[in-house]
Amino acid sequence: MPKAVAIHQFGGPDVLSLVDVPEPVPGPGQVTVRVRAVGVNGFDCRVRSGGMRGRYPVEFPQIIGNEFAGVVERTGPEVTGFAPGDEVLGFAVMQSGTELLAVGADQITAKPPELSWEVAGSLSAVGQTADIALDALRVGQGDTVLVHAAAGGV
Questions:
Q1: What pTM did the predictor assign?
Q2: Of 9, 50, 81, 142, which residue has the fewest beta carbons closer than 10 angstroms?
Q3: 13: which strand partners?
Q4: Residue 127 class from Cβ within 10 Å (0-12 exposed, 13-18 middle, 19+ buried)?
């Protein structure tokens, strides 16, 4: 039975524990990924500590983690572009902290071979956030962007 990192109550890192989870079966448009690395972001820490109470629903035990990197094990019906053995990275909101994960094929992309598992596992959220910000600001070719007081991956 696969294991996942979950919380049973709010608190510090000491509330994290391993729990058994059912083996996922990929549905239509999904793949099953054997997770090799999971990113840990400020959002994960705020959920764990209870800082997102009232803004983000939590059901105990709550798996944590929003981004991951791993290897595709199975593909469900209607999946094209991915096959067992493919190295990928992606996101699955509050589900990524598990050994085996069923996720939509639209939530993953190929892992560049030069990236370590650790870097690939922490790339999705920061890359997606930066892309959303640039899109929201309508930054285009020929525009100049000033980034000041930069901290963190974004």
A1: 0.85
A2: 142
A3: none
A4: middle
Of 144, 135, 31, nearest to 83 by C-alpha is: 31
Residue 138 in this model has a pLDDT that exceeds 80 = yes
Banded pLDDT at 51 (limits 50, 70, 90): very high
Residue-range domains of the chain with CATH: 3-136 (3.90.180.10)
- Residue 105: phi, psi to the nearest 5? -60, -20
Q: What is the mean pLDDT of residues 83-109?
A: 96
| Residues contacting 60, CB < 8 A, separation 6+ | 6, 7, 8, 9
Task: Classify residue 12 by its DSSP letter.
Answer: S
The residues, ordered by sequence, that sit 6+ positions from 13 with a Cβ below 8 Å of its Cβ are 48
How many alpha carbons lie under 13 Å from residue 33 in its C-beta half-sphere?
Answer: 33
